[in-house]
């Protein structure tokens, strides 16, 4: 059962799991412009998304996203 | 007085079997996502480790590996231990504080009655050792030197750690590094078929800069208030390509060589992906890259010798090569130049 039911849940997950103080307004920002973001966070976020959704996530697929919103879409729109 | 120092040979010693990302990931409790991440962002496929992953036992010391590499380099050069009148070893991870690994290795090789120096150094250590040796040889202190460099980082691997809970600055160390030692034999004068070491320099550029990497005397399982090893990979990504480009410019300027004169380039070996980015930044398309980090991991003080071993096998008479190494600890840039004889 997925605990990721909305964008709000996703923002909470990023804040709790990665410790990044993002808001919903940050979701469309390019990843390079998200304060504190780096590639290690991508791994932690994908792992957290797998746990939250109960689904397997392909990192190469996530790599096509250039924003947190894009990553969220990849995680839920399968 | 001669102005030439020749590199007669280079050799290496890597511990145990090749450890690929799948094997390392399984042992560290990491999954398929982690492997995909390592492929995409680190680009290092394999490494060798002094620790046996199944038992956790450390099976190779720095002295063991340095002994092997040193023996191989002497054999390849056709030089006997009695002919060696200088030993210099660079490492960040000596087996003990005393006696130095340099003296232990000299003893195992049957070298005695000569200066045996050990440099406490990081990724620029091999070039530091080459630069110090070159100066001593040109200054007349010695004629034939055995130069070594390497690291055994295995004792910084906490195989019980939950990688998912480690901060990024500690987490990345588990995939970047490998264990290994390299060695070279240097001799005063021009030796046909060898490579002239035309230049070797190191320069501290860390004034007012925070260290980009730290490594403590203690291991990760000891109860201390700070981590045993950290890596500020963001600062490293930002500064190392520019510093590497500066080293190339400085060497070319010093030697009066043109970019088109270069046949080989030995770039900094941070990880498969970072090294590829640095090579792009160096803009030396005509020079063949000599790299091994994707297969060996970053061996710290050892990896320049591993590159040197590969370069010497290919460098023909009259061909030119530049080597670059950047140490992100307190920020040291270093480089050297070779010319086939």
TrEMBL record, chain A:
Classification via InterPro entries: ACP-like_sf, PP-bd_ACP
Highest taxon of the lineage: Bacteria
Organism (species): Micromonospora gifhornensis
Protein name in UniProt: Carrier domain-containing protein
Signal peptide interval: none
Residue ranges occupied by any Carrier domain in the UniProt entry: 1-78
TrEMBL record, chain B:
Domain Beta-ketoacyl-[acyl-carrier-protein] synthase III N-terminal as annotated: residue spans: 119-198
Keyword S-adenosyl-L-methionine: no
Keywords annotated in UniProt: Acyltransferase, Transferase
Coiled-coil region list: none
Domain Beta-ketoacyl-[acyl-carrier-protein] synthase III C-terminal as annotated: residue spans: 254-325
Origin: domain of life: Bacteria
Keyword set includes rRNA processing: no
UniProt xrefs under InterPro entries: ACP_syn_III_C, ACP_syn_III_N, Thiolase-like
Alphabetical list of PANTHER family matching this protein: 3-OXOACYL-[ACYL-CARRIER-PROTEIN] SYNTHASE 3 (PTHR34069), BETA-KETOACYL-[ACYL-CARRIER-PROTEIN] SYNTHASE III (PTHR34069:SF2)
Name used for this protein in its record: 3-oxoacyl-[acyl-carrier-protein] synthase III
Lineage of the species this protein comes from: Bacteria, Bacillati, Actinomycetota, Actinomycetes, Micromonosporales
